[in-house]
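Lecture 7 notes: from sequence to structure.

We start with a single chain of 285 residues. Read the sequence below before looking at the structure.
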Amino acid sequence: MAEAHTQGGAPVRYPGDLSLGGFIDRDTMRFVRDYPHPPALVWAALTDPAQLGKWLWPCKSFEARLGGVGVFDPGREFQVRVTEFEPQRLLNLGGLFRFELAAQGPGCRLTVDLKRPPEGWSPMGLAGFHGWLGRLTRLLAGAPQDEVEAWASGIWNSVFHHCEWELRRFVSSGEPVIWRVHFAENDERLTPEAEAQLDRLAGLLLDRDLAVTIDGFGDDPCGEAESLSLCAARVRAASARLQAAGVAKGRINVAFVLGNYHYLVERDAEAGRAFNRRIELRPVY
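Now the structure, written as tokens:
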């Protein structure tokens, strides 16, 4: 049954909205959500392709069994295999996403453990998972889709810096977990400041024998295709600088090249657009 979704014209805050994830060890981040719904209802949302597509990723198919395969397509198609499966209790997707349900009175508790991916932790990805769990909460409550989208569109920036702080405190031993390099408008060339940053980063990578993952973002006055091309060129420029400083090409990974997407600050002034115009380099701690 759908619940009331406004209070005096303001969106409803659901209990889990304030429950941020945290590291239980360097390789595991945990989220916990308590629901008033029975385990069977939550389990259906974890295993039904139509429901998965509403809160997690667009889902083409999902085989709810041990060894089954889920096919998702959030822009590019990929598959995950079910590595643990106990109906209404335990679901593990590819060894990276582990969902455990436990009855709690008339409701249940969902514990989600995220395992460190091969390309390392991403504050963006962790913040995104907080958002996905918020979508799940609203799906279970029967919230209208426009409310879900309105909430999800603003939550990423709200928790991104918490995730970055968690990583710096519990994983990287205090070292920066993101190195942000900025660019001039419509320009792929590294500035002298950017070159100095990358040289310092190369020293850290070599000293601690670390790989690095690069994400590219932009906020240039150009179309989507141009923005993606410009971001890719900026990523290549940074990679070339790291290699020139001695970092092996095989230790430099590219995760996302997103163009004019994922803004850190508002875009209504040039200072904001300049700050958004960046690549992010994540040492794989």
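The CA atoms of residues 217 and 261 lie 6 Å apart. Keep this in mind for problem set 3.
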